[in-house]
Amino acid sequence: MPDSSQPHDGPDPTLATDPAVYKTLLESTRAIPWRIDWATATFSYIGPQIEELLGWEPSSWKTVEDWATRMHPDERAWAVDFCVAQSRAGVDHEADYRALTKDGRYVWIRDVVHVVRDEQGEVEALVGFMFDISERKKTEQKLLELQRELERLSFKDGLTGVGNRRHFESVLEREWHQARESRRPLSVVMIDIDYFKQYNDRYGHVAGDDCLRRVGRLLDTATGRPRDFLGRFGGEEFVLVLPDTDADAALRVAECCRDAIAAEAIPHSASPVAGVLTVSMGVGTRIPDDNEPPLSFIAEVDRSLYLAKQQGRNRIVAGKRAD
């Protein structure tokens, strides 16, 4: 007779046949097991862990309607439609959604679903596990916010706080496309601080940096509309992108900016044109067409800025009207 006190080789065969063992194993995990009868759309089982997570007693999970109504409204329609369609097709699947707790909060859930078929291949039941993924979602949200912040910083000029050259090019491309589609005018103003090298030589680079920041704030205040864009084009040059703005309106914006800087009366004793800081501006307006790239338009506005400087600075030169 075999000695029953000796250890076996391999697993205990009772584990494979005792339902109580399976139940104990399922209910000892943090995952929440469940089973739905497909024909009646009713829960035949849901783990007691559901009460610890959501507050709802297991006995309150009777039909799939209980599952659906305890889902956040923003996810309910697509999650229910998706899960039903996948189940009907016999495809295992998973879905993330927010589940309502008994005290009115929401918890992020990942539902992993396995489709059980009968001998004829028809869907018989759905079995699965619910996992609490709230912490994972919080981490994902933090990473998303960090990514957005990094994106924002990558579009920001570190000195003045206005948009940088990369941001300007992105905005110009977008607004050029929209203006072409809508057949509406798009205006650009290029701004150059007069004799800025002499300013730096006279007052020092620290004062020069502060001057650039002050000019950036003044220009930002002088524009004001939500879609207007202000960026630092490079060095002592700034640029304004003015959507839905015709030539006359663009010229008024430029004059407003020039007046704001003049009113600030920033001392510039090394300037040949005035004892205070001044700017030169080039203004252009275009209703884009399919044959002209935006960079050729910018080159034209830059030529107007060059003319303003060539003609004595402290002035605005507008290009040919195209609106």
TrEMBL record:
Q: Which PROSITE patterns match?
A: GGDEF (PS50887), PAC (PS50113)
Q: Which GO terms describe its cellular component?
A: plasma membrane
Known EC number(s)?
2.7.7.65
Its top-level enzyme class, in one word, is transferase
Note the Pfam families from the entry: GGDEF (PF00990), PAS_3 (PF08447)
Q: Which domain of life is it from?
A: Bacteria
What InterPro entries is this protein classified in? Diguanylate_Cyclase, GGDEF_dom, Nucleotide_cyclase, PAC, PAS, PAS-assoc_C, PAS-like_dom_sf, PAS_fold_3
Tell me its cofactors: Mg(2+)
Q: Mind telling me which Gene3D superfamilies this protein's record contains?
A: 3.30.70.270, PAS domain
Limits of the GGDEF domain = 184-321
Q: Which GO terms describe its biological process?
A: cell adhesion involved in single-species biofilm formation; negative regulation of bacterial-type flagellum-dependent cell motility
Q: Which reaction does it catalyse?
A: 2 GTP = 3',3'-c-di-GMP + 2 diphosphate
Q: Where is the PAC domain?
A: 93-145
An MF annotation (GO) of this entry: diguanylate cyclase activity
Q: Extract the NCBIfam families matched here.
A: GGDEF, sensory_box
Q: What is this protein called?
A: diguanylate cyclase
The organism of origin for this protein:
Dyella thiooxydans
